[in-house]
C-alpha cells in the first residue's frame, strides 16, 4: 500500500467512530461530567500532536479505540487521531509511519511482512491483546475487506471478531505494535498500549452486546463504567487517578 493510499483511508471512512472519539473526548462519559481543572493541567501529553492509531473496519475494534481514546485524553492529556487501515496493510502503515500505534496486528494475516519489519527494526511489538479464533466462513461484515483470493485462502487471511461456535478455529496471535520512532519518543504512552489486554471472554461479551444491537458508543460507556478492574491495569497510578476523576 502506498503512502497516498493509506492517506486516502482516513478515518472519515467510518464517521460513526469519529463521533465516538469526539463525544467521549469532548463531552465526557456521562451527562453532567466535569473534569477538575487541576487534573486537566497535570496531564500533559508526551507527544505534542494527536496519536495516530490504526482503526480496523469492525465494531469491536472501534470499541477498543473508543476506550483507549477516553483513557488517553483524561489519563495522559493526549488526543487520538484514528486512521483507517485494513488488516493486511497494518504493518505497512506502521513502517511508513502513517500510524504511531497498530491497535490490532493479526499475525497470521501479516506474518511475513511483520517478520521483515521487525528484523529491520522498523516496528516494536506491544501487548498480546488476545488469542483470536478465525472461522472458515468469512463473516459478512468483513467480506468487503477480503483480499482478491479464493474463498478458502481469504478465510485464512482475514481476521474475524464475529465467531461461529460451529466452526473449528485455529489460534491467531493478535497484538498491538508501535512504529520505532513513536516507541522511542513516547515511552510512557508505549507502556500504556503495552499493558492493554482483553481476555477472550470479555471480547466475546463486547461482541455479544454489539450483535444484540448496542451501539459502539453504548458499549464503550459500559466498558468504562463496568470494567474498571480491567482498564485500570493498563494505566499508571497517576493516570488512573485522573481517569477516576473524569468518571
From TrEMBL:
> Gene Ontology terms, cellular component aspect?
ATP-binding cassette (ABC) transporter complex
One Gene Ontology term of the molecular function aspect? transmembrane transporter activity
Report the Pfam families cross-referenced here: OpuAC
Q: Which residues form the ABC-type glycine betaine transport system substrate-binding domain?
A: 50-126, 162-226
Domain of life from the UniProt record = Bacteria
Protein name from the UniProt record:
ABC-type glycine betaine transport system substrate-binding domain-containing protein
* Organism from which the protein derives: Candidatus Paenalcaligenes intestinipullorum
Amino acid at each position: 500500500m502506498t503512502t497516498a493510499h493509506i492517506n486516502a483511508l482516513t478515518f472519515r471512512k467510518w464517521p460513526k467512530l469519529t463521533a465516538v472519539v469526539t463525544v467521549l473526548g469532548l463531552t465526557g462519559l456521562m451527562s453532567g461530567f466535569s473534569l477538575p481543572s487541576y487534573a486537566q493541567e497535570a496531564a500533559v501529553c508526551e507527544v505534542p500532536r494527536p496519536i495516530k492509531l490504526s482503526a480496523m473496519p469492525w465494531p469491536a475494534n472501534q470499541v477498543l479505540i473508543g476506550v483507549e481514546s477516553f483513557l488517553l485524553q483524561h489519563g495522559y492529556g493526549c488526543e487520538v487521531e484514528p486512521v483507517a487501515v485494513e488488516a493486511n496493510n497494518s504493518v505497512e502503515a506502521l513502517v511508513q509511519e502513517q500510524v504511531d500505534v497498530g491497535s490490532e496486528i493479526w499475525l497470521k494475516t501479516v506474518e511475513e511482512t511483520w517478520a521483515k519489519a521487525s528484523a529491520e527494526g522498523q516496528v516494536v511489538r506491544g501487548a498480546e491483546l488476545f488469542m483470536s479464533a478465525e472461522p472458515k466462513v468469512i463473516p459478512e461484515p468483513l467480506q468487503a475487506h477480503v483480499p482478491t483470493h479464493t474463498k478458502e485462502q481469504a478465510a485464512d487471511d482475514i481476521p474475524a471478531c464475529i465467531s461461529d461456535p460451529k466452526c473449528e478455529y485455529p489460534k491467531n496471535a493478535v497484538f498491538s505494535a508501535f512504529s520505532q520512532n513513536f516507541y522511542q519518543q513516547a515511552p510512557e504512552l508505549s507502556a500504556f498500549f503495552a499493558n492493554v489486554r482483553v481476555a477472550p471472554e470479555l471480547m466475546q461479551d463486547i461482541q455479544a452486546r454489539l450483535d444484540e444491537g448496542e451501539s459502539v458508543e453504548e458499549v464503550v460507556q459500559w466498558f468504562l463504567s463496568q470494567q474498571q478492574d480491567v482498564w485500570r491495569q493498563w494505566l499508571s497510578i497517576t493516570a488512573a487517578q485522573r481517569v477516576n476523576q473524569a468518571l
